[in-house]
Amino acid sequence: MSQDTVVKRQFGHRARLALSPAEVLRTDGQAHAARTMWNLLHAWWQMMPKEKRTLGHADAAVRQARKDIDFLAVLPAQAAQAVLKTYFQAWKNCWEGRADAPNFKGRFRTVMSVDVPQGRDLNIVRVHRRWGMVNIPKVGRVRFRWTKDLPVGKRAGAENRITGARLVKDALGWHIAFRVQTLEVKPEPHQGPDVGIDVGITVPIALSDGKTYEHGEWLTEKEKARLLHLERRAAQRKQHRKPGERTSRRLHRTYDQIAGLRAKAKRRALDWQHQTTTAIARTYGTVVVEALTITNMVKSARGTIEEPGKNVAQKSGLNRSISGEAWGRTVTLLTYKTARLGGTLHKVPAPGTSQRCSACGFTTPGNRESQAVFVCKNPDCGWSGNADHNAARNVLHLYRMGLALIPAAGRAVAAPRRHCAAPCALDD
Questions:
Q1: What is the C-alpha separation between 366 and 36, in angstroms, rounded?
Q2: What pLDDT was estimated at residue 36?
Q3: Which residue pairs, CB below 8 angstroms and at least 24 apart, start in 222-226?
Q4: How far apart (Å, rounded) are the C-alpha atoms in residues 45 and 56?
Q5: Model pLDDT for residues 38-67, shown as the tens digit of each residue
Q6: For residue range 91-121, what is the model confidence (pLDDT) as tens digits?
Q7: Which residues pair with 165 in a beta bridge?
Q8: What's the CA gap between 341 and 376, in Å, rounded?
C-alpha cells in the first residue's frame, strides 16, 4: 500500500475506570499535585526575569521542587514533565493568538487530570468482553470499561499503537482517555450532494433540502424537578454558612448530586450531536455552515449602574439556550467527520441569511414574520416557507457564489498579544 493511499491519524478514546476507594484517594492526590505543580510553575514564571524563562531552567526548578516538597512526590516524574510541557505550550498558544495567557488553577473550578505520557507504561490487557486492565503509575492495576477495540498485544505495531493517556475526573468519577495513533486508508472524495445548515434553538439543525434534526429535553420532568430541589437546598444551606467558613460535607454532597444530573444532561446532548453529525457527514459531500461568533452572541445585557440594560432576564434565558445547544461543538464534530469520510466543510458569513429571500434575493427585516414563518415582501415574488429552511438555503447560496471564508492558516497574520507577556526563548 503506497503512502498516498494511507494517512496517519491520532484520536482519543475515553473509558470509565473502576477504582477502589483507596485508588480514588491516590489518583485524587496525583491530580492535586499536578495542579499544585502548575501553580508553582506559574509563580516561578512570574518571578523569573525574561532571559531565565527557559525550558531548562524550568525543568531544574521542577526537579528541585519535587525534592523539597514531599506532597509533590506522589506525582510520577513523567507526569510532572507533562505538566511542564503543557504549561510552556500554553504560553506558545497565547503568543500565537490561539488562547489567553495561562493562569493559576483553582482547587474547585479546575478539571482534575493526570497525564501518562508513555503508552508503554500502561500495559493494557483485555480481561474479557466488557473489561480491560491498565497500569496507572503509583496507583496500580485498574479495571476499565472496554467499549472499543484498542491496538494492544498482537494488534499493536509501530504505526498502530497507544501513545499515552490522560486520567480525567468528572461528576461520574475517574475516566481514562487513551491517545491512539493509527494508519487509515485515505478516503475517496465524497460524491454526496451539497447542503447548507442553519442552527437555531427551536429547530436545532435545519438543512437546505428541507430536513430537520430536533431533540427533546435532556432531562425528564422528574429529573428536572430533582435538580430544582437540589439547587434550592444548596442555596438554603449556603445562606447559613458564615463568610470564610469551610463548606460542610452535606453541602458538598448536594453539589455533587447537582453536578451528576448536569453531567447526565450533557452526555445525552453529546450523544445526540454525535449521531446527528455522523448522519450528515455520511450523506453529504460538502457541508456549509455559518461562521458564528458565539462568544459575542451570549454576552450579558446587564449593562452598568449608570446605563442599565433592557430585557436582562430574557437575554439571560436566551444565552442559556444558545450555550445549551453547543453550536460550536456541532461544527467541530462535523469538521473532523466530513474530513474522515472524504467530504469538506466550509463557513460563510452569517449576516443577512435569515432576512434574505432564497427565491429572489430580496432582503429586508420584515421578511421573517415569526420564528418559523418567512414571507418575502417583494411584490414580484411573495415566496413563503419555513424560515429555518430559507436560512439554510441562503447559507448554501453564499458558498456557491464563492463567498466561503478563507482560513488564516498559512498566511502572515499578526497574532494579538493583549493578554500575554512578551515572548521569550523557551529552549536553552
A1: 56
A2: 92
A3: 223/261, 223/264, 226/261
A4: 13
A5: 999 999 998 888 888 888 888 888 888 888
A6: 898 888 888 888 998 887 788 999 998 888 8
A7: 116, 178
A8: 38
- The three-state DSSP-derived secondary structure of the chain is CCCCCEEEEEEEEEEEEECCHHHHHHHHHHHHHHHHHHHHHHHHHHHCCHHHCCHHHHHHHHHHHHHHCHHHHHCCHHHHHHHHHHHHHHHHHHHCCCCCCCCCCCCCCCCCEEEECCHHHCCCEECCCCEEEEEECCCEEEEEECCCCCCCHHHCCCCCEEEEEEEEEECCEEEEEEEEEEEEECCCCCCCCEEEEEECCCCCEEECCCCEECCCCCCCHHHHHHHHHHHHHHHHHHHCCCCCCCCCHHHHHHHHHHHHHHHHHHHHHHHHHHHHHHHHHHHCCEEEEECCCHHHHCCCCCECCCCECCCHHHHHHHHHHHHHHCHHHHHHHHHHHHHHCCCEEEEECCCCCCCECCCCCCECHHHECCCCEEECCCCCCCCEEEHHHHHHHHHHHHHHCCCCCCCCCCCCCCCCCCCCCCCCCCCC
Altogether, the residues listed in the chain come to a count of 428
Query: What is the residue type of 188?
Result: E
Residue 395, C-alpha cell as written in the block? 447559507
| CA-to-CA dists, residue 102 to 40, 74, 105, angstroms | 12, 24, 9
Cβ-proximal residues to 374 (8 Å cutoff; 6+ apart), any chain: 357, 367, 368, 384, 385, 386, 387, 390
Q: Roughly what angle, to the nearest 10 degrees, separates helices 249-283 and 327-340?
A: 40
Q: Compute the distance between CA of residue 35 and CA of residue 104 in angstroms, rounded to an integer.
A: 9
Phi, psi (degrees; rounded to nearest 5) at 37: -60, -40
Q: What is the pLDDT of residues 151-170, one digit of tens each?
A: 887 777 777 888 889 999 98
9-13, 208-212, 239-243: range with highest mean pLDDT: 208-212
Spatial separation of the C-alpha atoms in residues 228 and 199, rounded to whole Å: 28
Amino acid at 363: T
pLDDT value at position 65? 87
Strand partners, 214: none
